[in-house]
Specification:
The relative contact order is 0.11. The chain is of the alpha/beta class. Strand 7, helix 12 and strand 8 form a beta-alpha-beta unit. The longest helix is centred in the middle third of the chain and has 27 residues. The strands form four sheets. Strands 9, 10, 11, 12, 13, 15, 16 and 17 form an eight-stranded mixed β-sheet that branches. The chain has a six-stranded parallel β-sheet with strand order 1-8-7-2-3-4. The protein has a two-stranded antiparallel ribbon with strand order 5-6. The protein has two domains: 213 residues, Rossmann fold (3-Layer(aba) Sandwich), CATH 3.40.50; 256 residues, Glycerol-3-phosphate (1)-acyltransferase (3-Layer(aba) Sandwich), CATH 3.40.1130. The chain is globular. The chain is 39% helix and 17% strand.
Length: 492
C-alpha cells in the first residue's frame, strides 16, 4: 500500500478520480475538527437532558487522560445508556446541522469528485448515517452498531463494522484518513486501498468550512434546543449560565407582561433582549387596522410587530400551548383548521378594526428559507402588509417540533442575548382575489416572494406537514377533528 499526503490527492483532476472509490475517515479526513465530544454532548443534551449532559462534561477531564478509543467508549456509555432506540432521532434531526457546519471544504471537494464514496466513522452509525447518506450523498457508511436490550441502548458498541469490496472494485480504491490516527476502527476497509492519503492537523487548520450554498442537499429543517456548538468550554459556559438565565427569563417575562411596550422595551434592551426596526413604519399602520402577514421564526414574532407599532395587535394561532397562551402579552385567537370557520373568524376581527397578524407558513423555520404560504389570508382583506422578521439567538432555540412547546418562550428569554429584526414592506393589493379576478395561490406566492426578497431567504414549496413528517414522524396536526392537508383544507 502506497501512502501520500492529502495535498497530492487534491492535485488529481476530476477525470482521474471519477472512476475511483474513495474511503474517507470521517473524523480525520472529512470534518475540519477531529474532536467528537461536541456531537456526543448533543446526544446527551438533546436525547437525555441537562443532567446527562452535565455528567458527560464532568467525565471530560478523564477522557483527556485516556486513549481515543477508550474515550469514545466512555462517551457512548454516558450519552446512550438507557435511551430508547425507537424514539432516538438526534442523529436524524439534530446532528446533521452541526456535522454539516463542521465539514472541511477541501475534504468535501475531493470526495465529490469520486465515482463512489465510502465513509468510516469512529462514532456509532446511529449518529452519522443520516448526515452522510442524506446530506453528503455517501453510498456506504461503515460504523459500529449500538447494542440494544429490550428496546433500550445499553451504552456498549458492537465490534467494528466491515465493508467487503468486490475484487474488480478494489482496483480503484483510495483511502483518506488522519495522519494522527492510523489505527482506524474498520481496518478491513482501508486494507483494500491501493493508495492511502493522510491529512495532517496542520493541513486541516487551513481548511475552510463548507459554505451553505455548497451543501449537496439544503438543510431546511432541524430540531433541538441547543443553538451553539457544544465544545467543552462553551458547554461549561452554558451550565454556569443556566441558573442566571432562568432567573433572567422570569424577570424579562414579568417586565413584558406588566409594563407598556414603550417602557418595557428599553428595560429589556439593558438585559440584551433587543430588537431593531429596518426601514420605517408606514403611516397608515399607526392609525388604521390592517392584515399583516409575516414569516414565522418563533412564536414571539407577533409580539415584536406589536412592539414596533407600539399598538395592540391580535394574532391567530394554531397548536399553541396553553402555557404560551397564558403568558402572551398580546391577544391570541385559535384557529380550528376548518377553512370556512377560520375565514369568518379573521373577517370578524378585521371588521372590529383590529390589527391582525397572521403567519401563513403555519409553522416556524429556523434556516433562511420560507415555507409555502397558505392562500387563505389573501382572501380576507383588500390589502395585506407583508412583514419580514428575523431573529438571532446565542444559546437556545425557541422552537421545537418534538419537545414541550410550553417552554418555547422561556428558552427564548433564557438566551444571554437575542435580537429581532422587523421590517414593514409595501402593502400588497389583494382586492382582485376578493372579487374573484385573481388566484389566491398566486397572490400568496407573491407575498412570500416579497418577504423572501427582503430577507434574502429562499422560497420553497415545503409545508408544515413536510416539516413534521421529517422531524417528528407525524403530520403536525393535533386533535381528531383536524383534517389532513391532502383532504383539501388550506392552512393559514
Amino acid at each position: 500500500m502506497t501512502s501520500f499526503t492529502f495535498s497530492c490527492l487534491q492535485t488529481k483532476s476530476h477525470v482521474e478520480l471519477s472512476t475511483k472509490t474513495l474511503a474517507f475517515d470521517v473524523e480525520g479526513g472529512l470534518l475540519k475538527h477531529s474532536s467528537t465530544f461536541p456531537y456526543f454532548m448533543l446526544v446527551a443534551l438533546e436525547g437525555g437532558g441537562f443532567f446527562r449532559g452535565l455528567l458527560l462534561l464532568l467525565v471530560y477531564p478523564l477522557l483527556r487522560c485516556l486513549s481515543e478509543e477508550m474515550g469514545i467508549r466512555i462517551m457512548v456509555m454516558v450519552s446512550f445508556c438507557g435511551l430508547k432506540k425507537e424514539s432516538f432521532v438526534v442523529g436524524r434531526v439534530v446532528l446533521p446541522k452541526f456535522l454539516l457546519e463542521g465539514v472541511g471544504f477541501e475534504g468535501f471537494e475531493v470526495m465529490r469528485r469520486s465515482k463512489r464514496r465510502v465513509c468510516v466513522s469512529r462514532m456509532p452509525r446511529a449518529m452519522v448515517e443520516c448526515f452522510l447518506k442524506e446530506y453528503l450523498e455517501v453510498e456506504v457508511v461503515v460504523g459500529r452498531e449500538l447494542r440494544v436490550f429490550r428496546g433500550f441502548y445499553t451504552g456498549f458498541m458492537e465490534e467494528e463494522g466491515e465493508y467487503f469490496v468486490e475484487e474488480q472494485e478494489s482496483v480503484g480504491y483510495i483511502g483518506v484518513l488522519s495522519s494522527a490516527n492510523k489505527s482506524i476502527e474498520a481496518p478491513a476497509v482501508f486494507s483494500h486501498c491501493k493508495e492511502l492519503y493522510t491529512v495532517t492537523e496542520e493541513e486541516k487548520r487551513k481548511w475552510r468550512l463548507l459554505p451553505r450554498q455548497k451543501y449537496p442537499k439544503p438543510l431546511i429543517f432541524h430540531d433541538g434546543r441547543i443553538a451553539f456548538r457544544p465544545t467543552p468550554l462553551s458547554t461549561i459556559s452554558m451550565f454556569i449560565w443556566l441558573p442566571f438565565g432562568l432567573i433572567l427569563s422570569i424577570f424579562r417575562l414579568a417586565t413584558c407582561l406588566t409594563l407598556p411596550f414603550n417602557i418595557s422595551t428599553p428595560i429589556l434592551a439593558l438585559t440584551s433582549t433587543k430588537w431593531r426596526l429596518k426601514g420605517s413604519i408606514p403611516h397608515s399602520l399607526t392609525s388604521e387596522a390592517h392584515l399583516l402577514a409575516c414569516n414565522h421564526k418563533t412564536l414571539i414574532d407577533p409580539v415584536y410587530i406589536a412592539i414596533a407599532l407600539n399598538r395592540p395587535v391580535t394574532t391567530v394561532t394554531y397548536s399553541l400551548s396553553r402555557v404560551s397562551e397564558l403568558i402572551s402579552p398580546i391577544r391570541t385567537v385559535k384557529l380550528t383548521r376548518d377553512r370556512e370557520a377560520d375565514a369568518k373568524s379573521i373577517e370578524r376581527m378585521l371588521v372590529r378594526g383590529q390589527n391582525l397578524v397572521v403567519c401563513p407558513e403555519g409553522t416556524t423555520c429556523r434556516e433562511p428559507y420560507l415555507l409555502r404560504f397558505s392562500p387563505l389570508f389573501t382572501e380576507q382583506a383588500d390589502e395585506v402588509v407583508p412583514v419580514a422578521v428575523d431573529v438571532r439567538v446565542s444559546m437556545f432555540y425557541a422552537t421545537t417540533a418534538r419537545g414541550f412547546k410550553g417552554f418555547d418562550a422561556f428558552y427564548y428569554l433564557m438566551n444571554p442575548s437575542t435580537c429581532y429584526e422587523v421590517e414593514f414592506l409595501d402593502a400588497v393589493d389583494t382586492s382582485c382575489v376578493r372579487v374573484g379576478e385573481g388566484s389566491s395561490i398566486e397572490m400568496a406566492n407573491l407575498v412570500q416572494g416579497v418577504i423572501g426578497g427582503a430577507l434574502g431567504f429562499e422560497c420553497t414549496r415545503l409545508t408544515r406537514r413536510d416539516k413534521y413528517m421529517m422531524l417528528a414522524g407525524s403530520n403536525g396536526m393535533v386533535g381528531s377533528k383536524l383534517r389532513r392537508e391532502g383532504e383539501g383544507k388550506e392552512k393559514l
